[in-house]
Amino acid sequence: MGRCPTRKVKKRRLSHKTARRDKFEVKGDDLVYTELRKPETEIKPLKLDEDLPGMGQFYCLHCDRYFSNASVRDDHFKTKKHKKRVKIMNGPAPHSQLDADLAAGMGMPDNGPKLMMAA
After folding, report:
1. What is the C-alpha to C-alpha distance for residues 110 and 81, in angstroms, rounded to an integer?
2. What are the E-state strand segments in the chain?
3. Are 47 and 59 in contact (CB under 8 A)?
4. pLDDT bracket for residue 96 (50, 70, 90)
5. End-to-end CA separation in angstroms for the chain
C-alpha cells in the first residue's frame, strides 16, 4: 500500500565526505612522528603557498592541518582532538608500514637460528 510500485530498490547515493577526505590528504601517524623527532635545526620555515589556508603560515604539526589565521590555530590548540593527538605523538612510536607487512606475513622470512655446519 505505502510502496511505490515502480521502484524496487532504494537508490543509494555516495557520501560526499569521502570525496572531501581525499581532498585534504593528511600524512600518516608515522610520518608526523618522525617529523616531530627532528632536531630544531632541521625544521624549515613555512613557505608562502596561495593554495593553502592562511597562505600556509598557520600550521599544526601534530595534526597536520593548516589554518586561516593565528586565532583559529590557537583555538585549535585548546581542543580535545588536538590534545589527544599531542598525547599520542609524545608516546611510543606508532605502527609503520613495515610493522604492518610483518604482521601480515609479507616481511622478510624468519628462518630461525643458523645451525652450526659440521666440517
Report:
1. 40
2. 58-60, 65-67
3. no
4. confident
5. 89
Burial group, residue 62, by CB count within 10 angstroms (0-12, 13-18, 19+): buried
Q: Which helix (H) or strand (E) holds 59?
A: strand 58-60
What's the rounded mean pLDDT across residues 54-79?
90
**62, HSE (Cβ side, Cα atoms, 13 Å):** 16
Neighbours of 68 (CB within 10 A): 13
| Average pLDDT of every residue of the chain | 79
- What's the whole-model pTM score? 0.60
Query: What does the pLDDT read at residue 77?
Result: 94
Tell me the β-bridge partners of 65. Answer: 60
Residue in this structure with the C-alpha cell 620555515, named with its chain if needed? 45
The helix-helix angle for 29-36 and 80-90 (nearest 10°) equals 70
- Give the whole-angstrom CA distance, residue 73 versus residue 54: 10
